Amino acid sequence: MNVHDSEKVVGTLLQEGYRQVETVEEAQLVLYNTCSIRDKAEQKVFNRLADYKKYKKQGKTFGVLGCVAQQEGEKIFERAPYVSLVAGSASYTKLPEMLVQIEAGNSRVTGLDDRETDACFETEFTARTHPHRGYITIIEGCDKFCAYCVVPYTRGKERSRTSQSVLAEARQMVDLGYTEIQLLGQNVNSYKDSAADPGKKKSFAELLAAVGEIPGIKRVRFTTSHPRDFGRDIVEAIDAVPALCDHVHLPVQSGSTRVLDAMQRLYTREQYMERIAWMKAAKREISITTDAIVGFPGETESDFAETLDLLEEVGFDAVFAFKYSPRPNTPSLKLEDAICDEEKARRLDVLMAKQRELQTRSYKRYIGTRCEVMVEARNEARAQWIGRTTHNKTLNFTAPDSAPPKPGTYAPVLVTASFPNSLIGEMVV
Ligand code: 5AD
Ligand code: SF4
User: Fold this and answer.
1) What is the pLDDT at residue 130?
2) How far apart are CA 169 and CA 183, in angstroms?
3) What is the DSSP annotation of 52-105?
4) Digit-coded pLDDT (tens) for 195-246
5) Which of 37, 150, 263, 264 to mutate to test the pocket of ligand 1 (most atoms within 8 A of CB)?
6) The pLDDT value given to residue 381
7) Of 54, 55, 274, 307, which has the fewest beta carbons less than 10 angstroms from its beta carbon?
8) At a CB cut-off of 8 Å and minimum separation 6, what does 390 contact?
9) What is the pLDDT of residue 366?
10) What is the average pLDDT across 246-263?
11) How many other C-beta atoms can be found within 10 angstroms of the C-beta atom of residue 400?
């Protein structure tokens, strides 16, 4: 989401007559997009800002965008006085006006008060940084208020685009040569078509199917799904439309219903498993990935054991696991029973080791199968090509020098070996 926000900001600036350069040294205006989902990400921002200090003497202008900007607000001016712009993502539609103020010499411009907006950050022109995959935002903000999460406070309330504008952007991307689209939102399943005509409103699953049916589109992905709103119709859409990728990222956060309740996740372990069962009953094999948090306040050894047990029961294809990180303004800050960092680190290690072992075993199922990959790039050092399967797995493969595959195209690959996080193969010629 942040990568795509940066693409939209760059697109907006280019429209205003700015030119993008490669390095901070060359730039006159430096906008730094930031993430505050966990404390570590936030700390990086301040370290990087300290590095930028030296450039101020050269007359460069600095702005801080994104969630740290929204969260810290004008305090950033105190901590880093060489910053002239502080704006959260809900204010980006006003970026052109804010830049005019900066050019007029205003050295403290803010965009922080727009979190109640109904407007999405729609731009006529988005600079695409990924050469083959095009991101399209369908919904911004989040109304879920999970107890640990800063997003509803930094990105503001949920607002969806019209399906018409999403589909128009997808068609435009096909015209530009993109064949893979990734639909983005903090919670894509909460998508509510804002089309004025009730007859034209599409559900998320209908929008997904409609994007997948656009001629020229080969792959559609979407992220992130919230289990509470994840409907069976999404699995039916994947079954019905070949272009929808066989992959769903469905963050579980914990395998313990007690912890899920404390996290205000609005579902039980059983309800989560019901959604898994829908996916496992799909016509095509759907790869399932998840996010998990360890050490949430009050998480007992037995709650944690339930998370480990869930990993085994589901057989995820990847797990992104994090130590619980207390975040400003969130309800879980007030919870007692904090777990010390050493214990969080231990649980994280145990969880990752377990998942690695599960993946080591389960990725072997691909050996001997033929997968279509989107060719992403060449790894010269290893004399291999890097591909991605519909299951979102990295498949590194060799191809004859006489018939090198072209990045951005699709190639059939025979899988010959597997690692815990990737596959190896040979292009079928
Ligand atoms: N502490 C740790 N992990 C968090 N996440 C979100 N907020 C926190 C937090 N306060 C994780 C969740 C989410 C992912 C994007 O980041 O697992 O799904
Ligand atoms: Fe955060 Fe929960 Fe919203 Fe996801 S659904 S962005 S975890 S509040």
Assistant:
1) 83
2) 11
3) HHHHHTTT-EEEEEEHHHHHHTTHHHHH-TTEEEEE-GGGGGGHHHHHHHHHTT
4) 888 888 999 999 999 999 999 999 999 999 999 999 999 999 999 999 999 9
5) 37
6) 95
7) 54
8) 219, 245, 246, 247, 371, 372
9) 97
10) 98
11) 10
Cβ of 291 less than 6 Å from ligand 1: yes
Burial of residue 385, with CB atoms counted within 10 A of its CB: 0-12 exposed, 13-18 middle, 19 or more buried: buried
Q: Which residue has the tokens 């930028």?
A: 52
One-letter amino acid at 9 equals: V
Determine how many CB atoms are found less than 10 A away from the CB of residue 230.
24
User: What is residue 320's three-state secondary structure?
Assistant: strand
Which residues does a 6 A CB cutoff place in the pocket of ligand 2?
142, 144-146, 149, 151-152, 186-187, 226
392 C-alpha to center of ligand 2: Å?
22
Strand partners, 181: 134, 220
- Arithmetic mean of pLDDT, 242-265: 98
Q: What is the DSSP letter of 404?
A: P
| pLDDT > 80? residue 353 | yes
Cα(183)–Cα(136) distance, integer angstroms:
5
CA distance 161 to 336: 39
Predicted confidence (pLDDT) per residue in 369-389, tens digit:
999 999 999 999 999 999 999
| Residue 120 CB-density burial (10 A; 0-12 exposed, 13-18 middle, 19+ buried) | buried
Q: Which of 40-44, 362-366, 393-397 has the lowest mean pLDDT?
A: 40-44
Q: What order do you get walking across the sheet with 287-294 strand by strand?
A: 247-249, 287-294, 318-323
Tokens 């990737």 found at? 422
Residue 24 has pLDDT above 80, yes or no: yes
pLDDT above 80: residue 278: yes
142, 294, 319, 322: residue to mutate for ligand 1 pocket, most atoms within 8 A of CB: 322
Residue that has been written with the tokens 């010390």 in this structure: 340
What would the pLDDT profile of 170-195 be if each residue is shown by its tens digit?
A: 999 999 999 999 999 999 999 999 88
Question: From the CB of 253, is ligand 1 less than 6 Å away?
Answer: yes
What average pLDDT does this structure show over 86-91? 95
Residue where the block lists tokens 């990993």: 311
Ligand 2: centre distance to CA 32 (Å):
23
